[in-house]
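Each letter names a residue; structure tokens follow underneath. Both lines appear below:
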Amino acid sequence: MAERSKKFEEVSKLVEAGREYTPEEAAELVKKTARAKFDETVEVHMRMGLDPRQATQQLRGVAIMPHGLGKQVRVLVFAQGDAERIAKTAGADFVGADDIIKQIEDGWTGFDVAIATPDMMGKVGKLGKMLGRKGLMPNPKSGTVVGADDLPRVIDDARKGRVEFKLDKQAIVHVALGKVSFEPEKLTANLGAVMEAVVRAKPVGAKGQYIRSVTMKATMGPGIPLDVKAAAAMTTA
């Protein structure tokens, strides 16, 4: 533990106190501050000017990462009939109805994204407590409850690196951007997709400064403060 603390102190010196970095500078620096022997995840954390207790200030959305997240995404689809056939053809890893539901009730959660057709939600609903706390519950608001015709598109989005984000109880949004091994340009592009999605999802009840701070960091590294205006102006273009 002492050795890890020493390493952390060393890489923390690379982040200048009181400085706010451009997204491009942060993407370069975050690679230098990674200190673990494994390929750390690069994260972005945003403190929002929202009140999580207010219904009109809830924030939830989806971002499609142009360069993925650096890992294989396992897609499960709750479907039956023609929708089941479409999901299998579209490349879903797991497709089923009662059989899949039973496996999950028995404790299996070997998937990263769950999608469902509307007719399945009556059955899938009973998995809400189990899947909800893992962030795996299909939800119309996050675009994971769709008709059969939309399954190929949604499955493809999940494969590309579809990430959901939402406001937590501390008014912070946490999103993974990729891996430290990514080129800085890819991390910046993924950050642009997240920032664009967050700005687009601004709730109607938002007041004052919407995004108060943006911090990028590797899993085991120090936080790198970003220039909020520069980050908020990013797009996927």
The radius of gyration is 19 Å. DSSP finds nine helices and nine strands in the chain. The first strand starts at residue 41 and ends at 48.
